Amino acid sequence: MPRHVQRVMTESRTAPAVEASLTHLAVSLRGVTKTYDNGVMALGPFDLAVRKGEFISLLGPSGCGKSTVLRLIAELGAPSSGTVRVARHEGEAQPGHGIGFVFQEPTLMPWANVRENVRLPLKLGGVPKGEGRARADAALASVGLADFADAFPRELSGGMKMRVSLARALVTDPDILLMDEPFAALDEITRFRLNNDLLTLWRRLRKTVIFVTHSVFESVYLSQRVVVMTARPGRIQADIRIETVEPRGEEFRTSTAYSDYCRRVSAALAPSYSGQSTL
Ligand SMILES: Nc1ncnc2c1ncn2[C@@H]1O[C@H](COP(=O)(O)OP(=O)(O)OP(=O)(O)O)[C@@H](O)[C@H]1O
């Protein structure tokens, strides 16, 4: 039975009705603020509820606290105030368990082959080598890299390295996938291809995905909801549901509905940039 682990918080009273509805949520942030040691107030107050299996994007100007949100969810830091809750299964009480993290940089170990890179989280978790290798191979197959398990990172393109990074995040079979601008450094064609592959994976695995991007187009294409943040300290500027025929594909990318949503999201984003230099 899933249970909810409540983490560092200064205010713990929650209305019973809200508590009950948490069983449908993967992640809940309520009244969260984050001020770093240097005095920078990065976030808040910030409220976000993400349903299990939902794909949402966080969009906002540079420095508005998007990565901070992901780090708080992953317990790579504690909120200054407010509540962060993450749904977990029994046996996943340790920080970070049940969560996969994909960063903009694939951060692969250059001296290890692709299989060993993907196996790393299992190795750190004490999974026996044979089982770990089999699971790493399965994760690699899921991202279309079954034939590259013995290759080294230097032999791979940028897109392939990102697939390895995704396989490494999936190898522990997390319920929640946090993705911090994973495709930002890739060329457009590779990015489009990875967008489609990610959607295919998401439809198959139904993980909860929280995806950070600077791209209005990418956020609308991928997400069921686009959450637009204000400039720092980041709060919710708009929460826009993207309703369209599923599964999405290239016809959605060229549809009027897609461009209408992009316009709507851009308009919601505009106030967050007001007063900021565009240079
Ligand atoms: N460890 C830290 N110590 C001090 N300040 C930090 C730290 N991490 C982030 N910040 C500051 O907090 C603010 C929010 O940072 P964060 O990385 O969450 O923003 P972001 O929206 O992800 O930015 P970007 O889109 O540029 O990646 C920024 O002003 C950043 O400089």
TrEMBL record:
Tell me which domain of life the UniProt entry assigns to the organism this sequence originates from: Bacteria
Transport among the record's keywords?
yes
What GO molecular functions are on record for this protein? Answer: ATP binding
Query: What InterPro entries has UniProt attached to this entry?
Result: AAA+_ATPase, ABC_transporter-like_ATP-bd, ABC_transporter-like_CS, ABC_transporter_ATP-bind, P-loop_NTPase
Q: Name one Pfam family in it.
A: ABC_tran
Q: Which Gene3D superfamilies match?
A: P-loop containing nucleotide triphosphate hydrolases (3.40.50.300)
SMART domains xref list:
AAA (SM00382)
Keyword entries, A-Z = ATP-binding, Nucleotide-binding, Transport
Which residue ranges does the record assign to the ABC transporter domain?
27-256
Job description of the protein: Involved in beta-(1-->2)glucan export. Transmembrane domains (TMD) form a pore in the inner membrane and the ATP-binding domain (NBD) is responsible for energy generation.
Q: Which family does it belong to?
A: Belongs to the ABC transporter superfamily.
| Protein name (record) | NitT/TauT family transport system ATP-binding protein
Source organism of the structure = Bradyrhizobium yuanmingense
